[in-house]
């Protein structure tokens, strides 16, 4: 391979947060491969390569990761970002809706984590970031989403513990609310309400996808060399505030 750039794979990298992560990693000097079921935003953009990948297909994931290593020599960074959600009350949720979300958000992360991790262990180094969510603590109307995002945190800490001594670091980023696909679906479905959300975010604004990408960039950098198994919240303070307003502003 003549290209000397480090190789980064971003699942779900064709749109939204994944796209922004890809752009950031390109700026950081990586050769970026967006692995996605759709080509999406990567069409016509030569700075990010695209590989068709359905993260739910265990055997196919393994084949695609083998092909990437054959073609590009190695995988230095893997961002497990592909994610979906379904909006339904717990009692009305169908098995199909539950299964579909679990397949992408949990089994998908396992599939790519294992396939990418095996190559990184063989190389003796690698950096992985899994994308969780503040919804991991519970989110009414989004049972499979919240459950899988919590499971991703457990998988992250476990992988971090297993692979820490073998040169592979695994961490997670849990974004707050970002104006991209998953968030827009929630607004459209009526499960998420923008005014309620903004009133409960101490920063009083949504995150920009680039702010999530900046945290990912840090976690895969040498600056995070002693971080492993951690979940970094990028949420404008959402997780540390119960949303009870001050009775009066402190005097300055
Ligand atoms: P998005 O819908 O804009 O993008 C998701 C991408 O994943 C799409 O390109 C889609 O084609 C791809 N994808 C879906 N199923 C796939 C599969 N089986 N295999 C491969 N790719 C697949 O979503 P987003 O809002 O950018 O969310 C990205 C990640 O960030 C998700 O994991 C989501 O749960 C998480 N997240 C989003 C928010 C938010 O507010 N938007 C907040 C917290 C966490």
Summarize the topology.
Layout: E1 7-11, H1 16-27, E2 31-36, E3 48-52, H2 58-72, E4 77-80, H3 95-123, E5 126-131, H4 143-163, E6 168-175, H5 181-189, H6 194-200, H7 209-219, E7 231-234
Parallel strand pairs: 1-2, 1-4, 2-3, 4-5, 5-6, 6-7
The structure holds nicotinamide-adenine-dinucleotide.
Residues 11-12, 14-18, 36-38, 40, 53-56, 81-84, 104, 108, 131, 133, 175, 177-178, 180-183 line the site of nicotinamide-adenine-dinucleotide (NAD).
Describe this entry's structure for a reader.
The chain has seven helices and seven strands. It has a single domain (7-177, 208-233), classed as 3-Layer(aba) Sandwich (Rossmann fold). Helix content is 41%, strand content 15%. The radius of gyration is 18 Å and the shape is globular. α1 (16-27) crosses α7 and α3 runs parallel beside α4 (143-163). By secondary structure, it is an alpha/beta fold. α1 links the parallel β1 and β2. The chain has a seven-stranded parallel sheet with strand order 3-2-1-4-5-6-7, sandwiched between helices. Bound molecules: nicotinamide-adenine-dinucleotide (NAD). Nicotinamide-adenine-dinucleotide binds at residues 11-12, 14-18, 36-38, 40, 53-56, 81-84, 104, 108, 131, 133, 175, 177-178, 180-183.
């Amino acid at each position: 391979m003549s290209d000397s750039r480090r190789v980064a794979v971003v699942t779900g990298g064709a749109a939204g947060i994944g796209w922004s992560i890809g752009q950031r990693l390109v700026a950081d000097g990586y050769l970026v491969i967006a692995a996605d079921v759709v080509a999406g935003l990567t069409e016509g953009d030569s700075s990010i390569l695209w590989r068709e990948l359905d993260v739910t297909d265990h055997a196919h994931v393994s084949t695609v990761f083998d092909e990437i290593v054959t073609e590009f020599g190695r995988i230095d960074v893997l961002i497990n970002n592909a994610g979906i959600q379904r909006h339904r009350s717990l009692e009305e949720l169908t098995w199909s809706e539950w299964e579909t979300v679990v397949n992408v958000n949990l089994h998908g992360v396992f599939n790519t984590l294992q396939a990418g991790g095996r190559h990184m262990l063989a190389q003796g180094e690698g950096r992985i970031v899994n994308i969780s969510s503040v919804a991991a603590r519970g989110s009414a109307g989004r049972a499979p989403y919240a459950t899988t995002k919590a499971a991703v945190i457990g998988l992250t800490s476990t992988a971090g513990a297993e692979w820490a001594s073998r040169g592979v670091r695994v961490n997670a980023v849990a974004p707050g609310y970002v104006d991209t696909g998953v968030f827009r679906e929630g607004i459209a479905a009526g499960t998420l309400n923008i005014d309620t959300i903004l009133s409960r975010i101490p920063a009083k604004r949504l995150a920009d996808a680039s702010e999530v990408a900046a945290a990912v960039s840090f976690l895969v950098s040498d600056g995070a060399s002693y971080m492993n198994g951690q979940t970094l919240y990028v949420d404008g303070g959402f997780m540390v505030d119960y949303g009870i307003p001050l009775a009066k502003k402190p005097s300055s």
